[in-house]
Structure formats: structure tokens, C-alpha cells
């Protein structure tokens, strides 16, 4: 089985807390990536030369940058897209400024989280969530091959429709749209999934205490992201296609 198993406890993807909930195999990681519709992408804004031209200084703020993005996965590569001048697009398009090697690619982290339920417990510190999450780490590159770029854009669009062929059900992309859109590939080097699905787990002394148990409800409240009924735009002139109507009542 293909895996991102960390080499040791210092590995970037090693899950230190609640290790029994951690999964490092490709299948577990991919399932969460494929179910999630939104990723949060962490990156470092490139440095620029200072006025002395000998040193590099931080560009803009010192804050870490994390931006929510739609995305897709093709094998073990995550693809993002955006306007050509977008900060994330520029930051992840080229080698790291000031690095010893011109070939050193910028690093990025990608997280996807899905909350599946609330866990209501007796103790305030045992209230929790059921969830599916992944953290992925890798080096980014600008996609310059036209075929790879079109393939990635197609998958990004279709993923939002749970695999429905929306890209095909559009007019053909034009050169201006293609030229002003960048696609970034992040080849996953390390990753971990963390999944929780359980009922509350309180302390035995609280469970056995009638004064506590008789006053406080415990259990789980499921949370689902469910697709609703499609609504026509003001200029739509055709019937809702099957791949869209079939989304109704489906959940991620």
C-alpha cells in the first residue's frame, strides 16, 4: 500500500496528538481530498531585494499567508488555479528568491477539513467534533504544459459537481481566459489524514453521578453538507441537465 508514513516523530506530517486517529496511506488521504470542496493553502510570500541589493527583505506583511481555494487531485498532485497576478499564484510559480539553487521550488501546505458532527458531552472539555481532515505538504510549480493545464482546469471544475462533466457542458475556453489563468501543481511529498467518528467519552465518575447525568443531554448531532434543488438563472433557456439534477440531496 502506498503511504506517506513519517520517518520519525520530527517529520512534518507526524500526528502528535490522538495518534490513533491518524492515517498515512494514500487511500485515506485521497478520500478526504476528493470529498472536500474547499482547501486552505498556506504559503510564504516571496522575498524581494532590499535597497542595498545585497540582502533580501520580507515582502508585504510578516503574517503567514493562508488562502481558501477550490482545487482538484490528480493522482498524488493537488492543482489550484487563479488569476495570473494573484498573490498566491505568483508566490507559488517560481523558485524561492535568494535560495542557493535556482531550481529550489516554493513550499506549500494544503489542508482540507470536513465537520461531520457535534459531540455533546457531560464535561465541557469532552465536547468535540466528528471530522475528516488532511494536511498535505509539497513543493509547488507553475503548470506550463498546455495539456496538463487543460486537464487540471477540467478536473477543478468537474470536482465541484462531484464528477459531473461541467467542463464539457460549457462553451470552449478562449485564449484570453487561458492566458490570464495560472495553474499551480503541488506534488504531495508528505501528508496525513486525521479522522474522528465517535460518541462522547466522559469520565466514569461523571457518568455514574446522577446529579450530572439527570441534567445534561449527551450524544451526537450529525452535520451534513447537502446539495439543494437547482435554481435557474434569469437567462437560462434549457432544462436542468441530469448531472446537475442528480446532485440534489447528495452530501459530501
UniProtKB/TrEMBL annotation:
<dbReference type="InterPro" id="IPR024747">
    <property type="entry name" value="Pyridox_Oxase-rel"/>
</dbReference>
<protein>
    <recommendedName>
        <fullName>Flavin-nucleotide-binding protein</fullName>
    </recommendedName>
</protein>
<dbReference type="InterPro" id="IPR012349">
    <property type="entry name" value="Split_barrel_FMN-bd"/>
</dbReference>
<dbReference type="Pfam" id="PF12900">
    <property type="entry name" value="Pyridox_ox_2"/>
</dbReference>
Amino acid at each position: 500500500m502506498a503511504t506517506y508514513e513519517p520517518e520519525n516523530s520530527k517529520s512534518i506530517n507526524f500526528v502528535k496528538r490522538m495518534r490513533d486517529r491518524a492515517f498515512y496511506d494514500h487511500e485515506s488521504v485521497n478520500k478526504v481530498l476528493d470529498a472536500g470542496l474547499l482547501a486552505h493553502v498556506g504559503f510564504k510570500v516571496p522575498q524581494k531585494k532590499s535597497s542595498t541589493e545585497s540582502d533580501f527583505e520580507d515582502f508585504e506583511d510578516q503574517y503567514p499567508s493562508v488562502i481558501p481555494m477550490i482545487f482538484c487531485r490528480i493522482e498524488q498532485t493537488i492543482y489550484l488555479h487563479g488569476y495570473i497576478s494573484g498573490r498566491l499564484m505568483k508566490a507559488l510559480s517560481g523558485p524561492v528568491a535568494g535560495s542557493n539553487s535556482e531550481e529550489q521550488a516554493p513550499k506549500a501546505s494544503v489542508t482540507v477539513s470536513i465537520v461531520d458532527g457535534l459531540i455533546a458531552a457531560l464535561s465541557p472539555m469532552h465536547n468535540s467534533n466528528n471530522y475528516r481532515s488532511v494536511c498535505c505538504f509539497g513543493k509547488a510549480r507553475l503548470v506550463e504544459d498546455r495539456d496538463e493545464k487543460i486537464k487540471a482546469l477540467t478536473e477543478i471544475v468537474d470536482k465541484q459537481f462531484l464528477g459531473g462533466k461541467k467542463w464539457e457542458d460549457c462553451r470552449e475556453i478562449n485564449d484570453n481566459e487561458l492566458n490570464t489563468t495560472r495553474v499551480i501543481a503541488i506534488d504531495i511529498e508528505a501528508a496525513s489524514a486525521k479522522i474522528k467518528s465517535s460518541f462522547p467519552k466522559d469520565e466514569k465518575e461523571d457518568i455514574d453521578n446522577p446529579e450530572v447525568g439527570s441534567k445534561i443531554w449527551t450524544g451526537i448531532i450529525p452535520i451534513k453538507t447537502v446539495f439543494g434543488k437547482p435554481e435557474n438563472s434569469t437567462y437560462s433557456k434549457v432544462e436542468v441537465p441530469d448531472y446537475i439534477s442528480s446532485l440534489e440531496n447528495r452530501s459530501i
